[in-house]
Structure formats: structure tokens, C-alpha cells
Amino acid sequence: MSTNLYNMASYDDDNQSKLMRKAKENPFVPAGLAGFFAIVGYQLMKMKHRGNTKMSVHLIHMRVAAQGFVVGAMTCGVLYSMYKEYIWDPAHKPKEEK
Known about the structure:
Keywords: Membrane, Mitochondrion, Transmembrane, Transmembrane helix. The chain crosses the membrane at residues 27-44, 64-83. This protein is mainly alpha-helical. It has two domains: 1-51, no CATH class; 52-92. The chain has helices at residues 2-25, 28-46, 55-88. Helix 2 runs antiparallel to helix 3 (55-88).
């Protein structure tokens, strides 16, 4: 039974280190998620004071804002990785095929 507990602890450590490694490789993914949840939370709190706006219109605006933030974060992440790969460290370019 103690070996099973050890395996579970190492499994959790592996997943946690994998998550941290992925976040360091691609820092815009956690930023996109944080922005998504911030926008959704703000819009849900703002829903109380929406006035005459229909619920469906308010939800559509919330969805568009959250998706726009996530797409923007993904675009920034792709541009950052391209910059890092081709401009900042061009010595590690892949070899051209003949």
C-alpha cells in the first residue's frame, strides 16, 4: 500500500511539473485563461445592472469579449514563439531540406 501512495505522489509531482513547464514554454495560455475568467466574471457581475438589454444579447456580448481575449492571447503567443525562434535565437534554425 505504501508503494501505491508513493506512485500517486510522484504522479501528482509529474503533472504539476509538466503544467509548470508548459506554462513557462507558452506563457500566454495561462494569461488567456485568466483573462477569459476575468471577463466572464465581470460580465456576470454586470448582469444585474443591464437595464433593458435582453439576457441573450448580454450573454452574446460576454461570449464575444471572452473569445476575443482568448484569440488575442493565442495570437500573441504565436507571435512570441515565432520571434523567439526566428529573430531572438536564429542559430537554432531547422536545417533546410534539399
